Amino acid sequence: MRTLIFRTIAPYLSALMVLYSIFVLLRGHNEPGGGFIGGLIAASALAIFGIACGVAAVRRALKVHPMSLAGFGLFIGTLAGVYSLFTKQPFMTSQWWPVTIFDVEIKLSTPLIFDIGVYFVVVGAIASIALALEERESD
Amino acid sequence: MAGPISSAKVDYSAAMNLAPVAAGDWLVVAPVLISLVGGAVCLMTRKNTQAQPKLAMIFLALLVAANLGLLVRVLDKGVITMVMGGWLPPFGIAFTADALGATLSLVASIVAFCAGLYGAVTVDGTGRRYGYYPFLVLLMAGVCGAFLTGDIFNLYVWFEVLLIASFGLIILGNDRPQLDGAVKYGVLNLIGTNLFLIGTGMIYGVFGTLNMADIAAKISELDNAASGTLLTIGVLYFLAFAMKAAAFPVNFWLPASYHTPNIVVSAVFAGLLTKVGVYALIRIFVLIMPESRDYMADLIAVVAIATMITGVLGALAQTEVRRVFGYLVIAGIGSMLAGLAVGSNLAISGAIFYAVHSILVMTALYMAAGVMHRMGGSYDMRELGGLYGANPAFAGVFLILAFAVSGLPPFSGFWPKVMLVDAAMSDGRGWLAFAILLSGFLTTLAVGRVWIYAFWRGGPEGTPDGTAVAASGGTISIGSSALWLPIGILTAMIVYFGLQPEVMFDLSARGALGVIEPLGYVRSVFGDAP
Amino acid sequence: METGLAIVIGLFFAVSVYLMLSKQLVRMLLGIAILGNSVNMSIFLNGRLTREVPPVIPQGLLVPTEVTANPLPQALVLTAIVISFSFFAFLLVLAFRAYQEVGTDDVNEMRVAEPENDPLPPQGY
């Protein structure tokens, strides 16, 4: 798989896919998309990078272990539900903070935070499984 | 945007719960929340093997405290419910804590706390980096979630959470036998959850709801509550949860896998996982589908007897101590199923009490096996011996555990067996009572043999009797309090429940009443309106 | 429509049971993957099928104007797909590791955890 063409293209392709995955994640509130799909796209980006340049390169690029990413996602996903404790509402009740920037209304909310959490959980879990599989293949 | 909806003008009260929620009601979700946050934090700090046990122990202690608070509140105020996201039931996912769920959740968290302590000694740096503590805490999220949820599909989700975490635990260390055991464990459990999911889909097709209280209310209004569809669902559920609980004939995965992982992981599994299956059986068959249970009572009784007898016979045929205990877990499951088969108030109370007892005693036995391994250098009773001479106090503790698991007085195993035998006799199922007593007798033989071989005789096979210390070079210096404290806590609870069973009588009777008379459960979810 | 889908689900179940009865681990895993799909389809079918009307509420309204497809089974199926997908990924890794370590994917020969010639327990005291 490590042809010259693939190895040259893979970093750009991966970067593009990660960017697209963030687009899909943020778009997910009112249109098709969301944390799970976005996370899968990002994880496949990492997998492609791993196939082309080796697992070690991916781990270096990630800085943290993928499972730590998953832990972080789980953490903020859970905390997003806890916020409603302070507003005397049941667990996971959504809170909305609409902000207007340059005449565009952006609805910041706990579901958004939760979705970002899902994104990280999926990226972390799937990437660590994919990397584990690729690592075995090379030896 | 054409006419945006402003939330101020719209009346949401038909779909959402707008009343403020008391902070105390958050106790219903607190166990799950604490374990999820704790698991996440432990996952992020996985590499820091020194700080991790302390962090995890803080979260596990919080978990015990939250479960204790929840149980006190449930006993004080009755069943409490919180519906996620503020939606009204049955639209939102409900978490409903009754006496049964809260009791089991508390006992489970105590066991997890003990396992956290014990694991600080037996799980080395590699095991911690592989994620022993994160998975243990996340396992508790699944276990507590399963005990406290009030929604069948959500029950499925929590089952999967605990299954994923248990996968992580069972392959901790990646030994050959572990991978072998994990394959069997994983495949069988995945098939079991798929069967559970089929039943859940059919429940939704019949009732159009997945909320347990809603189904319980709707099924009692049904004319033909034992129709073919519902019986099919009942049989599917029974098979699925019997797989989880390791009942005969789908019990073979348990002795094939439970002895492979680190001993503390075996202890947690033996204590908790099968009991979640039993809990689900009680919840589904007594609360939701009592007619199916009545119809299937004889089948359940036969399964219960077969489970008890195969369990103890399997235990008698093993030389490996951990596998002996693995089969004893199965025998205990049979006793709980016997309670489900009889189905009277006393029988269900007995099954609940037995579940609590079994959680405590099976965990303690596996932990004791770990200590035996550290003292004698082996799990095989042929190669063990002379442990009484090495440490008489530990031999005494093991004897207490052996008595308790066989159901001998004055320990915690005695009372639930009395209740179950009494219930079976008054239901006219003398043979069921006989099977319970027979399995108790054979259990005594199996653990008695472990005691005689590992503790009482002078030394391992081949050495002349009278050598006080095992010759296999095992270390006797196990003065670490982190090993003794968990075994001590569990043994103290076993002795306490044996001498003062009133606490458990009361708890299990309230738990049983809560599922046999679902009115309180339904009202907690839907309010006092019928 | 429902009948047709029911027949397809039945076929899926048959295939998955056949594969799961195989001795080879990889085939069993394929069977489990197909089992998951058939279960998901049966949940979908249990929510009743409604064609061509997506469950989307028009802008400015609070309730849909006509009978729409049932969104709940879709949510359930999505959850189930996610879970069974991650399980399947995990089991694949596990099976591969087991194959490397044990050296066979024939489950009859995977006897590391339960050795075949286990000695009988001591008969006397």
TrEMBL record, chain A:
It is a multi-pass membrane protein. Residues 5-126 form the Na+/H+ antiporter MnhB subunit-related protein domain. The chain crosses the membrane at residues 12-29, 35-57, 69-86, 112-133. GO terms for cellular component: plasma membrane. The keyword Cell membrane applies. The keyword Transmembrane applies. Keywords: Cell membrane, Membrane, Transmembrane, Transmembrane helix. It is found in: Cell membrane. Belongs to the CPA3 antiporters (TC 2.A.63) subunit B family. This is Na(+)/H(+) antiporter subunit B.
TrEMBL record, chain B:
One of its GO terms (molecular function) is NADH dehydrogenase (ubiquinone) activity. The keyword Membrane applies. It comes from the Bacteria. It is a multi-pass membrane protein. The keyword Transmembrane helix applies. One of its GO terms (biological process) is ATP synthesis coupled electron transport. The chain crosses the membrane at residues 26-43, 55-75, 95-118, 130-149, 155-173, 185-210, 230-254, 263-289, 295-317, 324-346, 352-372, 393-411, 431-456, 468-499. GO terms for cellular component: plasma membrane. It is found in: Cell membrane; Membrane. InterPro entries: CPA3_Na-H_Antiporter_D, NADH_UbQ_OxRdtase, ND/Mrp_TM. Residues 151-443 form the NADH:quinone oxidoreductase/Mrp antiporter transmembrane domain. Keywords: Cell membrane, Membrane, Transmembrane, Transmembrane helix. Belongs to the CPA3 antiporters (TC 2.A.63) subunit D family. This is Cation:proton antiporter. The lineage of its organism: Bacteria, Pseudomonadati, Pseudomonadota, Alphaproteobacteria, Hyphomicrobiales.
UniProtKB/TrEMBL annotation, chain C:
It is found in: Cell membrane. It comes from the Bacteria. It is a multi-pass membrane protein. The keyword DNA damage does not apply. Pfam families: Oxidored_q2. InterPro entries: CPA3_antiporter_subunitC, NUOK/Mnh_C1-like. Gene3D superfamilies: 1.10.287.3510. The chain crosses the membrane at residues 6-21, 28-45, 75-96. Keywords: Cell membrane, Membrane, Transmembrane, Transmembrane helix. Its main location: membrane. GO terms for cellular component: plasma membrane. Belongs to the CPA3 antiporters (TC 2.A.63) subunit C family. This is Cation:proton antiporter. It comes from Roseibium aquae.
